[in-house]
Write a structure and sequence with these properties.
It contains ten helices and twelve strands. It is an alpha/beta fold. A five-stranded mixed β-sheet has the order 4-3-5-12-6, covered by helices on one side. The radius of gyration is 26 Å and the shape is elongated. InterPro entries: LysR-type_TF_proteobact-type, LysR_HTH_N, LysR_subst-bd, WH-like_DNA-bd_sf, WH_DNA-bd_sf.
Length: 296
């Protein structure tokens, strides 16, 4: 007799959401996104031809039919779990991928995208340490190191994944207070600097042929991400790396008052030690970074 079985991943999502009474908690238990649980539940509802949950503002409730269904399939999941444990089949162990990347890049670009990688590869745990130091100064061996480039380091393979340029950025509220119609208008504004990148503004002003310009004020920070946050807060104008402010430009938190000139900048690259050849998880993460970089 042919078995009539619903999509098993959808059934698993329904069982977890029904048992826990929450799509969010089900997503956490299954190591997937909230949207993935919702999609699986909709798939099962379409397959059964019936609604399983009543959706409220911040909670869900099982329909009466779904509760009866859950009462029958829930014990089956328990038996499956017990049988698996009894026969000594180990649960899959998540692989930890260690990444070392600059702090500003991590805060402004990587963190916002890591959830997408986790949704695609729930069996891979990612641990990120931040550092700007050279590869040879790192005291720990990392699976992937992200730095500027392209550079050549003995014992490492290199692949670029994200390019950028630099140009002035500021909050739209600042422009409403003090408009910027031409680069000369920068003399009415505060220019935001980063102590580790002292040449950004002088080089841009020289490229714009206004090297002698004197701004109303200057403000210097020791970390680049603080400089960018000050620009978002409307304190002044920063030299923004296009890759790291792309999300802010898309959301309207920052704007570019001038189309150019644009200063060329080094690309972001992944560096992997030669003793890790053919590592599947490293290859997955590198390829994912390259796809994300193309979309930025």
């Amino acid at each position: 007799m042919k078995r009539v079985l619903p999509p098993l991943n959808a059934l698993r999502a329904f069982e977890a959401a029904g048992r826990l009474g929450s799509f969010k908690e089900a997503a956490a238990e299954l190591h997937v996104t909230h949207g993935a649980v919702s999609q699986h539940v909709r798939l099962l509802e379409g397959w059964l031809g019936a609604s399983l949950f009543e959706r409220h503002n911040r909670r869900v409730e099982l329909t009466s039919a779904a509760k009866a269904y859950l009462d029958e399939i829930g014990p089956l999941f328990d038996k499956l779990s017990q049988a698996t444990a009894r026969y000594g089949i180990p649960e899959p162990v998540a692989r930890t991928l260690s990444v070392n990347a600059p702090a500003t890049f991590t805060l402004r670009w990587l963190v916002a995208r890591l959830a997408k990688f986790r949704a695609e590869h729930p069996d891979v745990e990612v641990r990120v340490d931040t550092s700007n130091g050279p590869l040879e100064s790192l005291k720990e061996s990392y699976d992937i190191i992200i730095r500027g480039g392209p550079d050549t380091f003995y014992g490492y393979s290199m692949r670029p994944f994200l390019s950028e340029e630099r140009l002035p950025v500021c909050s739209p509220a600042l422009l409403q207070r003090v408009p910027l119609r031409a680069p000369d208008d920068l003399q009415q504004h505060t220019l935001l600097h980063t102590s580790s990148l002292p040449r950004l503004w002088p080089d841009w002003l020289a490229s714009a042929q206004i090297s002698a310009l004197r701004p109303a004020a200057t403000l210097t920070f020791d970390h680049f991400y603080l400089t960018l946050q000050a620009a978002i807060d409307g304190i002044g104008i920063a030299m923004g790396p296009t890759a790291l402010v792309s999300d802010d430009l898309a959301s309207g938190r920052l704007v570019t008052p001038f189309a150019g000139p644009r200063l060329p900048s080094r690309s972001y690259c992944t560096y992997v030690a030669d003793e890790k050849p053919g590592d599947e998880m490293i290859g997955l993460f590198r390829s994912w970074l390259e796809r994300e970089g193309m979309g930025s």
